[in-house]
Amino acid sequence: MALEKFNCIPRFEPGIPNLSAVQWMHKIDQMAETNGWNQVTTIAHMQSRLTGLAKKWYDNLPKYDYSWGEWKQNILKGFPDNRYFAVALRTMLARKKEDNENWSQYYFDKIELVRACELPEKHGVSCIIDGIPSEIIQTAARAGHYENPESLFASFLSTLTNLLHVERREPVNYRNKIPERDHLRNKEDRSAHPYQRYKSKCYNCREEGHLANACTKPKKECTKCKRLGHISANCKKSENVSCKTIGTHDKCYYITCEINGQKFLGYVDTGCGGVIVRTDVIDTLKVKYSQTDKIIEGYNNSVTQILGTVTVLLMVDCAEANVKVIIVENSIQTVLIGQEFI
């Protein structure tokens, strides 16, 4: 078989990062075992992949009648591995995903740096995630609890779409609870805000125009959940609906919610201005939505493209409302419940 067909063996040239002589010869040993090469074939493939200084070293050897074991000893003597772990570690940690590269390019470059440090697989997963600039994607990646870098790439990173050519429009910051004070003075500016404030609504009689403390109708309080607006016979509070803190983030909570009658796991964020859902949630609901090319800004000024919007019936605990939800890619939390509902 022609040697050209075995170019899967990488070139060996001293000075190429992340490929020491030891690593290179280990790759050749793996190929030899996989393909059943004898010593002669193995040596021939090794010689065909020498380049640069390694090729000059080879050309100046006094003889070439060595066994494969002798060749490996000679290569190690000629090109010892003088890299220091601390240097390799700093280089690896400094490698971040660039805006102009896709996820595959980032992963395969980063994994070589990780392997050069000879870290355990779980630590390798952590280092790859650490190089992702978006905190949203970092959070989603950590939630997968991947055991090794290969599963992280196959199940998560390879599914992400790169928004490298999204036109940069003026971002809409939904994390601001209210517009700036100057905007509040201008009714036109206030009405132009994408999420207009609700009219006053009474939780006792469910009518708009006043609050519960000013309601003139008889007080309707549930003896089960102690909330206004219904009696215990009509109480929808479920014992299975719970809220728990995640990690050390005391202000972030997961909670069971219902969208159009279907249950999902919601993520309550009081600093988010809207209600955000992923495309897989919309696929499950089987609802049509209006497409848009707007973007939102948040999470340390990261930018996310809005795929569309649709109005749904959202129920959390005993509270429910028709809200317009923002649809984003699957790298975001499943259901992000913000101020539009709260």
UniProtKB/TrEMBL annotation:
CDD domains: retropepsin_like (cd00303). It comes from the Eukaryota. SMART domains: ZnF_C2HC. SUPFAM superfamilies: Acid proteases (SSF50630), Retrovirus zinc finger-like domains (SSF57756). The keyword Cell division does not apply. One of its GO terms (molecular function) is nucleic acid binding. Pfam families: gag-asp_proteas, zf-CCHC. The keyword Chloroplast does not apply. Residues 201-217 form the CCHC-type domain. Keywords: Metal-binding, Zinc, Zinc-finger. PANTHER family: CCHC-TYPE DOMAIN-CONTAINING PROTEIN. This is CCHC-type domain-containing protein.
